[in-house]
Amino acid sequence: MKKCIVAVLLLTFLLMPINVGAVSVSAKAAVLLNGDNGEVIYSKNADQRLPMASTTKIMTGLLLCEYGNFEREITVTAEMLRVEGSSMGLLPGDKVTLHDLLYGLMLASGNDAANVIAFVIGGSLDGFVQKMNDKASQLGLKNTHFATPSGLDADDHYTTAYELGKLALYALGNQEFAKAVACEKATLNYGNPPYRRTLTNHNKMLKMYDGAVGVKTGFTKKSGRCLVTAAKRDGKFVVAVTLNAPSDWSDHKAMLDYGFSAIKQTQYSPMVDSYNLPVINGTKEALTVDIKPFTVNTLETEDIESQVYLPKFLYAPVNSGDKLGYIVYSQGGKTIGKKDIVSSHSISALESKKTVFDILIENFKHILRNI
To answer: Structure pTM?
Structure first.
């Protein structure tokens, strides 16, 4: 009887899925995302609401980047600087541009920078916090709520590892934001009168990990060590988040390594790889559009589909490099990639004496042929 039980247990064990490559982290909550499509590669308590300290500044920096006007110069007031904690060194009366505030925010993790940004964009701390929460709602972050622009502890200031990763991934799509968080050192010019000074990024992963491109550190006694990192290597892109992680640097190295190993890179070719588009009033009647293979980075490579979006005809002239349309790749109904379709060569316009009426009639005929 005992032999039978042992045999059953052994068989059950052999049939159980074993995640050999899974990582082990010190964090209370963590998530690892495929940066190309948001797939969850690894998670641990990823939907648990927790404080996130200065990783809050990802939202603050994003709103500043979307606001723009980086050369605008601000005169700092004492009211703006009523905040404790980390600082970029601002004093009442200092003059500072929005560009330098972004770098002071994301590199030096300046709570003073966060407050100044809040007053500039929101008119007040409360006004800016409302904008933060509006943006969170717009992005579908249902388990995220902001109470401060800096990340100082508050009862109603929280997020989840998954939603923080989702926010970071969205923010990295902003060119100015991505440029700032990837910067190891920045020489800025602010003060009264402004003078040059250099700030160093608190995110050690930029030096510690090959391919790291950001994004933000954070710490308070309540939240513990919080970290969001992103890395790109060999055409792959991963984003890692840990909340309350005593060994965050080690956690992130292990997670990023695992992410790169888990993502499968596949070249995918659509079923139809060539289209002829009629060209109106051109030196050639049609333009041949070739759809090149697309590299797909996913955890699974099965059931990938594509949909090509092109106009029914073109107007001359058409220049080489012109965007003509795009192709969308999906898997299980979810978009996993999008690529622009561009013209590989040019077609000049005919030099004719056609009237506007003639061209309209010709265009109408082309439309009818393609209905």
So the answer is: 0.82
